[in-house]
Amino acid sequence: MANQTSALDTTFHALADPTRRAVIARLMEGPASVSEVARPFSMAMPTVLQHLKVLEAGRLITTRKEGRVRICALRTETLREAEDWLSGQRALWESRFDQFDAYVISLKNKE
Questions:
Q1: Least enclosed by CB within 10 Å: which of 21, 31, 80, 85?
Q2: Where are the annotated coiled coils located (predicted)?
Q3: What is the DSSP string of 64-106?
Q4: Phi-psi category of 36—alpha, beta or left, where left has phi over 0 and alpha has psi -120 to 50?
């Protein structure tokens, strides 16, 4: 459980930055080289590489070297784990709100 929580922590930390979410959105179209990933951003390459490092630590992307080019690819299973956690939280809160609604209706009916 602690390892799963730690993995989710690093995943959500990686997703907390808008630049990294934009990189994820780009990689949803398919694998891309680092220079392709960096193209839309007006930032220095070391900064882009730092973002990619955080995404890799968050298990959201993988990188591999093909000749002189580094290719980035999305790890969809990690996104699925985050989505599963969020879905579980949403189900829990919807259940609580349904119970609260039922309680409020029962109070109104008593009046």
A1: 80
A2: none
A3: EEETTEEEEEE-HHHHHHHHHHHHHHHHHHHHHHHHHHHHHHH
A4: alpha
Measure the CA–CA gap between 55 and 14, rounded to whole angstroms: 5
Spell out the residues 6+ positions from residue 49 whose beta carbon is closer than 8 angstroms to its own: 34
Give me the pLDDT at residue 4, please: 66
For 67: left if phi > 0, alpha if psi spans -120 to 50, otherwise beta; the answer is left
CA count, 13 A, side-chain hemisphere, 11: 21
